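Morning!

This is the sequence you dropped in the shared folder:
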Amino acid sequence: MGLNPKDLIDSPQNGEPRTGLSMGEHQAITTLEWNITREAQDELAFNSHKNLARAYDEGFFDDLITPYKGLTRDNNLRPDTTLEKLGKLKPVFGKRTPIQR
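The structure's back. Tokens below.
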């Protein structure tokens, strides 16, 4: 195993001070403890993307966002996503997978 220059750069830290865990890591724990299925998470994400896209299209953010270097929308928005596309994404947080039913 070789040393990569990226290994020498500090990673940004966003952990909660008391636990050291990120929001995503806390979410992974919560889904396991509350038995939240992967399908339920995907449905929530799907609706969230659709709602955000609609809010942009209807002008909700027009007076709330200041364009910066040409960016006028959140670049994480996937307005064309589907439940099928979301279901193919690998889990990002947690070593265990969410409960699937």
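Headline: The chain has a mean pLDDT of 86.

More detail when I'm at my desk.
O.
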